[in-house]
Amino acid sequence: MNADLQTALSVFLIGMLTVFVVLTLVIYTGKLVIWMVNRTVSREEARHLADHHRREAQLGEAQHHHLPAIIAAVDTITQGKGRIESIEWIEQ
């Protein structure tokens, strides 16, 4: 076998092995982070987040750009103590 071809094959194999090892580390690190978050976040917090995401999905795309301003206004007026339960758009 030619020395150049042997060098190219060894560099290729080392590169592929490195990619495999790095991707394996990324996968298992992600699984570890998910496991840790699931153990630390309480069920009530998870339910609250799920309700929040459900409410955002119900708003639709047309009104979605108003949501940050509404949240900021409620947070400012109530000094962080208020919580938005639902938002209903009234047709005029």
Query: Which percent band covers the strand fraction?
Result: under 5%
**How helix-rich are the residues, as a percent range?**
over 70%
SSE string, helices as H and strands as E: HHH
The overall number of domains is: 1
Quote the average pLDDT: 82
- Report low-confidence residues grouped into runs of 5 or more: none
What is the CA-CA span between the terminal residues? Answer: 81 Å
Describe the structure.
The mean pLDDT is 82. The chain has one domain. It is built from three helices and no strands. The relative contact order is 0.05. The chain is mainly α and 92 residues long.
Quick overview of this protein structure:
With 92 residues, the chain is mostly helical. It is 76% helix and 0% strand. InterPro entries: Na_pump_deCOase.
List keywords for this structure.
elongated, mainly alpha, 3 helices, 0% strand, 92 residues, 76% helix
Give the helices and strands, then pairings.
Layout: H1 3-40, H2 43-63, H3 67-77
